[in-house]
Amino acid sequence: SIYPNPVKDELIISFKQLTMEYSVMKIYDLSGRKIWEQTVASEKLKVNTRELSAGVYFLQIDGMVHRFVKL
Asked: What is the pTM assigned to this prediction?
């Protein structure tokens, strides 16, 4: 799950279980441009979203896609 949504400064991402020891998390903007990528190895992390422009984004990890809104 991802929260809060919409987000202002910090997005919290929580997974029940990663499918591999390490996963790659990517954030895309509405046009499909990759704007952020990070290797993750924990089941909960925080993403600083202060630098993102307001709009709709997509977070992809382990084949799943989550939509979130940046205020």
From this structure: 0.88
